[in-house]
Write a structure and sequence with these properties.
single chain
Amino acid sequence: MSLPAKRIGLIVAVLGLVLGLPSINRAGSILSVSIDGVVLAPGETGSGPGGTATFLGLRGTNGAVFSKDFTSINPIDITVTVDSGGLYSIDELLSPEALIRNHTRLPWKDFEFILMSAPTGSSFDSAVESPIPSERRFAEPVVTANLVTFAGGTVAINDSFRPLVTLNITGSGPASFTVRQLPTVPEPSSFVLLGMGVLSIAGIAWCCRPRAVYA
């Protein structure tokens, strides 16, 4: 069975990021990364409304590797400054320490990467989750120009997952782009329906319980 062209392109891009191989979309270099305006050096941690993100370093010259700990259902915005246009990645996939952790006390039904700002014509290029089946939490991600959605699954409380997204940044000179990362949870109505179902089952079990027989 042949692989779709999009997935082949993603595999080639990932290999290029890991091995430093040249490619048609080869980017320049990441100059800096920041969270809420605070520039981070490798090993430093920044915070946003949703929690904290530790910048673990660069993968080659054009992949920024992070570990994130979400403590609330709010975003973490990461701004990356580069020296030219091309292919770049935000990576929690290729490093053992790189994870997105759910410490929000609520299960996530999906997770979004949103391109908040970038040079005109820039867009998400591709997205993938861990190649290890036991580490996958979602179905195939949906990629559009300004949004990547990992859905069709769940990240349980205190669980984690490993995504990698790539972006095509336009232009020939220095530029910056900002990617918002945001988990979402089931609608409140879903929790209400779940609670009603549990209560109904409990009620049926109570009604059907054995009754004591008195002489």
